[in-house]
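Suppose a colleague, Dr. K., hands you the sequence of a protein chain of 345 amino acids and asks what its three-dimensional shape might be. Before reaching for any lab equipment, you can write down a predicted structure in token form. Begin with the sequence itself:
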Amino acid sequence: MTEKSFNNRLRQVLMIGLILFLVIVFISQLYIFLPGILGGITLYILARKLYQKLTIEKKWNKAATAILFILCSLIIITIPVYFSVIMVSPKINSLINNQNSVIQGAKIFSGQIESSTGFKLLSDENTQAISKKISAFIPGLINTTATLLTNLLMMFFLLYYLLVSGQDVEKYLHHIIPLAPENVDKLASETILMIRANALGIPIICIVQGVFATLGYLIFGLKEWGMWGFVTGVFAFFPLLGTMIIWVPLVIFLYSTGHNYAATGLTIYSFIVTGNVDYITRLGLLKKMGNVHPMITVLGVIVGLKLFGFIGLIFGPLLISYFIILIKIYLNEFTSEKVINDLEA
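The predicted structure, expressed as tokens, is then:
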């Protein structure tokens, strides 16, 4: 290697190191806005095809069309949030103002479990811990609400920019990504497919599970069954244990008020019907829409919620898929054709 070649390689390494350092600094400082940034990208990918059709084929004004899309997105997002707040706020206030009644009901349920199985569900220490958590719920909710509003502003700001300048951004990314053009196209198509599968599939899952949960609450005589079904559908966004956050306390309430048959029936119904509808719909629908393997969905959601919060429901599975895609692209870019054929076989 000549001295000139060595110096060029050294400058290249130093430049890459500087770029990586700045990327790390930016991510560390903007991490709180990451859900909003990812949300803006998600909405852009969902809207880009229709937006480009309206602005390119129909000659609509770009800025006005972008504002129209933002208003539609805002309405779609805020309607379920608004109804959630209206329906749940009175229950939260009642929970905070009547902690003793809630804890007493839990003790009655615990006593029934202990008399039947010999297992003590609630001790004095557990009861005190529950009381403290209820007292600390409101400040945490306020902080979460403030962060959510900040990320909503970031999301719609980014969405406007991407809609207006999206084609230029896509061309730039296509140019700077250090992969063969066919692999860049593959990465882009997989991103679009996965985001559509998760961003459209998950709300459908929540609606289906909310409907079946509402039916169960109605059958077993719960008051305000419509409200509880709606809230269960909202919590269905969180996989595995999401709906249990709602129906388990309802079962405890029914037991504590002496409605043992209704409580037992609701427990069986929630496990067999509500739980299985969630599992079948989530994995079946997402697999059909995006050919997503069930393990990718489950592991991706777990990872995504930890990294990104709520928006991780969409981007978690995408990260797992990216990992698999990048391995395939690496093999395609840097290994022999024989190895690739062997792996595909």
